[in-house]
């Protein structure tokens, strides 16, 4: 009898938390200032467009100053404003200097910029590894460190970390990228519970997309592509903005991939490794990405 009661209570509790309990919706409008890294290209630029349509004020930190004028035009077409800061996110001093120049309150931080050096580990230089970790992991950590006290003082804040399904599973030619995205997820999860512990007003959202058609993973191919085709950058941007508005803790794209990747993680290593090597192995020479 006790087991039945416990089970019933557990099912009701789970249903409440997973299905019924709705987070209050976050309103993205002209009262919100969003700082987004890597806004000049790819999904960052798509998110800037969507945020501009909602009339949010946009601050972009990006290394590609040459693309800033075009981004500004796009944002202004939708009736919003852009403050652009040229900033190399692999340089911690530049990040600190840039944040010190911004006077207005930042409500939402989207850590989106990323790099991927698609090479086998033995072909990567130590500089490749350092750059990947600095941009994909240390920059989001430093920006969070700098902005959390300001967000707590203004009693509002939302931090979004754009990870990847490679925050959970693995693949070929992605040792540095995968390690940096795993680290980002570990940081994000630990930060979230600490914020909850102290009842902080800051919310966090982790985004884990599958491969996107931006060029970062140009040439990525496997024998199981028919199951999961490359995502379009417009769709990914729409889903990220929706996840922020709904204040989701985590959102993978496609959404079932969170569960699937976590299940793949539990496969015995020989099975998981066999699948990766057989499916992706024959095509790795075509996987070149941007290899900046
Ligand atoms: N493309 C994919 O298949 C894919 C899949 C899953 C997750 N992601 C993640 O999504 C995010 C965006 O990816 P994307 O495909 O739009 O990438 P992208 O290469 O199209 O754009 C990346 C942006 O980051 C900027 N950037 C790169 N290095 C920088 C630096 N040192 N300092 C400042 N800015 C810098 C670039 O200038 C660019 O604007 C990344 O975090 C990436 O890891 C991408």
Task: Write down the Rg.
Answer: 20 Å
Along the chain, the helix and strand elements come as: HEHEHEHEHEHEHEHH
Low-confidence stretches: none
The class by helix and strand makeup works out as alpha/beta
Number of helices: 9
Rounded to the nearest angstrom, the distance between the terminal CA atoms is: 63 Å
Please report the total strand number as a whole number.
Answer: 7
| Helix content bin | 40-55%
Largest pleated sheet: 7 strands, parallel
Query: What is the approximate shape?
Result: globular
What oligomeric state best describes the polypeptide chains here? Answer: single chain
Any ligands, ions or cofactors bound here, and which? nicotinamide-adenine-dinucleotide
Strand order in space, largest sheet: 3-2-1-4-5-6-7
Q: Please tell me the overall pLDDT.
A: 92
- Proportion of residues in β-strands: 5-15%
């Amino acid at each position: 009898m006790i087991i039945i009661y416990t089970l019933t209570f557990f099912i009701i509790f789970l249903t409440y938390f997973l299905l019924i309990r709705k987070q209050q919706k976050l309103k993205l409008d002209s009262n919100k200032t969003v700082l987004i890294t890597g806004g000049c290209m790819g999904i960052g630029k798509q998110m800037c467009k969507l945020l501009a349509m909602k009339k949010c004020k946009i601050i972009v930190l990006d290394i590609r100053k040459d693309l800033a004028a075009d981004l500004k035009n796009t944002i202004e077409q939708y009736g919003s404003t852009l403050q652009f800061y040229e900033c190399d996110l692999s340089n911690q001093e530049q990040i600190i200097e840039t944040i010190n120049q911004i006077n207005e309150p930042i409500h939402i931080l989207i850590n989106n910029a990323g790099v991927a050096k698609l090479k086998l580990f033995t072909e990567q230089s130590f500089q490749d590894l350092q750059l990947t970790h600095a941009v994909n992991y240390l920059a989001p950590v430093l920006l969070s460190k700098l902005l959390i006290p300001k967000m707590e003082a203004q009693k509002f804040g939302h931090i979004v970390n754009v990870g990847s399904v490679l925050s959970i599973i693995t693949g070929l030619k992605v040792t540095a990228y995968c390690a940096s995205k795993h680290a980002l997820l570990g940081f994000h999860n630990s930060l979230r519970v600490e914020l909850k512990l102290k009842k902080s007003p800051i919310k966090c959202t982790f985004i884990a997309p599958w491969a996107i058609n931006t060029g970062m993973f140009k040439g990525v191919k496997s024998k199981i592509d028919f199951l999961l085709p490359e995502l379009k950058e417009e769709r990914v941007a729409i889903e990220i903005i929706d996840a922020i508005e709904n204040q989701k803790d985590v959102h993978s794209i496609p959404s079932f991939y969170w569960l699937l990747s976590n299940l793949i993680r539990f496969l015995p290593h020989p099975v998981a490794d066999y699948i990766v090597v057989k499916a992706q192995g024959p095509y790795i020479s075509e996987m070149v990405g941007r290899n900046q």
